Amino acid sequence: MAVLRLKIRKKAVDERHVVLKSGDSASTYKIRLHDEYNFLFDGGYPSSPVTNEFVLKTYSTEDAKKYYSNEVNAFKRLMHRNKVERNMITFYGSFRQGRTYNILLEYANKGTLVDFFEETRPPIKEADITKFWSNLLEIIKPLQRIHELKREDGPLIL
């Protein structure tokens, strides 16, 4: 798999970004690339961008390089073309800019699983119940792949 080496120019990103989450080691932002700068199309992935909205995860602490390297290496191993799972966020690339380490990911615009359960009525018909459970169980495949990741010196910490 070819990993994108990204350097995002300030004018390429719409200034109206949204902070999704800010933690001790990283912050995540919903960003929008201007049309003329979005070259992140790759037919090999199940979710090639049909939008210019992405998640930018930025590490900027003393341990940033370690966390960033762990996550990038995990995504590289998970995103092999022949093993990309349908229900896994797409990794588009990574870059270092100044003292920050950045990862560009697919933006899942449907919210979280908790949002889904809060906003969706439970299925009633047998066919809907079957479809619900079949779809829900599909997330087991990417979770299993994540848990199978190993480093030479122990488990991979993301």
UniProtKB/TrEMBL annotation:
Residues 14-158 form the Protein kinase domain. InterPro entries: Kinase-like_dom_sf (IPR011009), Prot_kinase_dom (IPR000719). One of its GO terms (molecular function) is ATP binding. This is Protein kinase domain-containing protein. It comes from Zopfia rhizophila CBS 207.26.
